[in-house]
Backbone:
């Protein structure tokens, strides 16, 4: 059984979730600030805490599977994370995960609390989809994706 972290990458916040390959059940863990100078170390700490074998970063591809500006940022972040941590990092199309997170949180919390949980719930949706579709074997590593150099 392997464990994976899921990351919903954003320009302001990153959501983090964890799951194991045996159950495929993903749970939100926390939300981190994107501008934090210790962001890589915080992610490495969470990976150690949950004994994660890999990290999957949400990759917001366009409907035609091309990269827009946000997808390029996510891919570059994933490439840097792989270089700095030495952990196996993969990319996964995060199509509709924010919508799924909104649906899961609807009516459950105050608006302020929903906003604090949204990115971690979206990370759990990315991770669950990744594992349900054989992500560890199907998902590319950032270095394997063609695009502008980071």
Residues:
């Amino acid at each position: 059984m392997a464990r994976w972290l899921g990351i919903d990458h954003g320009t302001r916040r990153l959501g983090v979730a964890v799951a194991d390959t045996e159950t495929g059940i993903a749970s939100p863990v926390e939300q981190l600030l994107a501008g934090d100078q210790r962001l890589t170390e915080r992610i490495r700490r969470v990976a150690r805490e949950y004994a994660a074998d890999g990290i999957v970063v949400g990759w917001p591809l366009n409907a035609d599977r091309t990269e827009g500006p946000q997808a390029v940022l996510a891919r570059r972040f994933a490439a840097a994370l792989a270089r700095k941590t030495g952990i196996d990092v993969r990319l996964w199309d995060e199509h509709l995960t924010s919508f799924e997170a909104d649906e899961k949180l609807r009516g459950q919390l105050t608006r302020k609390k929903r906003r604090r949980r949204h990115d971690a719930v979206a990370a759990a949706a990315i991770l669950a989809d990744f594992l349900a579709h054989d992500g560890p074997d199907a998902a590319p590593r950032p270095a394997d994706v063609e695009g502008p150099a980071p």
